[in-house]
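User: Hi! I'm working on a homework problem where we have to compare a predicted structure to a textbook description. Could you give me the structure for the chain below?
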Amino acid sequence: MGLNNDKATRHLSSLEKEYENYLEYPLNLNITRGIPSEEQLQLSQEMLGMLNDPEDFLSKNKMDIRNYGELTGIIEAKELFSAILGSESRETIIGGNSSLSLMYFVLTTKLFMGSVPWKTKSPIKFLCPSPGYDRHFSMTEKLGIEMIPIEMDENGPNMDQVERLVLQDQTIKGIWCVPNYSNPTGIIYSDEVVNRLAKMKTSATDFIIMWDNAYAVHHLTQENKVAKNILTACKEAGNSERPWMFCSTSKITFPGAGVSAVAASEKNITMLANELSYQTIGHDKLNQMRHVKFLKNTNQLKKHMEKHALILKPKFDLIQKKLNERFNESNLLTWTNPKGGYFVHLTTMDGCATEIVESLDRIGVKVTKAGATYPSGNNPRDNSIRLAPTSVELADLEQAMDVIGLCIEMISLREGNKK
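Assistant: Happy to help. Predicted structure tokens:
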């Protein structure tokens, strides 16, 4: 898009003058990470005082949870988290406050332990639907696993691409998936995608699906749509050992003091529990019981998450309002309108995202680094920006969106003028 007329030239000039004012008087706004706000954290404050009576320290099997034991988690926690994940209690292990640590544990177990470790068959490769979760990719890179980007659309990963790759290369050992309100695009995997992941033929007989269900209950509307259960689909397809499902309460209660869980086939869980037994005698059972007493069951959990939605939805609505006002009639930008999760994804003109993010940083507005949601931070089209609005006040977000819109428009027009 070239600036071939006086009106367009004047508009760019006015944007640049507005930007210069921000250079002189920069802001101080940070929307880089998807973390709960203080108001959201306060929703769970009651949980901290829930263990008071002697009976509170006894599990269903009359075990004192203040003592050693229950390697895979207390019965009550396994029942609650298996209901969230769609597994059986015997197929579930309860971990500490981070589901990422469970993912790392599964990968290192597959890499170095078991009867035939992956590392005896190196090099190892993983499919990485992109844009995706940056911490998945940094973990994979840290472990020396080669990452293969996979295109994403409104239904999930491009399954034609996935099926072709896994059929022809036995060193491809797995795929990362965020099936519900995917980070950062907010899409929900379609039933077709889930079924194809479950049924597809793979050259590697030990191929796995890392199913990070981080936003399984994080709805912003009453639709409450979720992806089909991958464990059930894999069982029906005769590939029961393929999926590993993860979740946590990091964005339900307290990120710093939550509970995580992993679910898989009984065989996989038995293998993982055996490896876990060399590391610990059990995770924090008091915290597990606090969460059980506070969240109780999936119905109570739903009510709790509706309180989160009341806090979050106005922020997501504001982003949509601001983007529509500025770019509805423009070809400079497209964006997602998620029904849940923690992010809004912006697709800029090719070659613009990095410069937009850098221009924002210069005037005191920090967003996630451009390309961070791609393996090794490498987005060949340089057109991806993730917005994480959850932790900031509505007034600050409104100010940030005005500046974000300014920088997107200014940098895009400059880039268009070059072409």
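For your comparison, note the following. The first strand starts at residue 29 and ends at 31. The domain at 6-31+302-418 is CATH 3.90.1150.10 (Aspartate Aminotransferase, domain 1). Good luck with the assignment!
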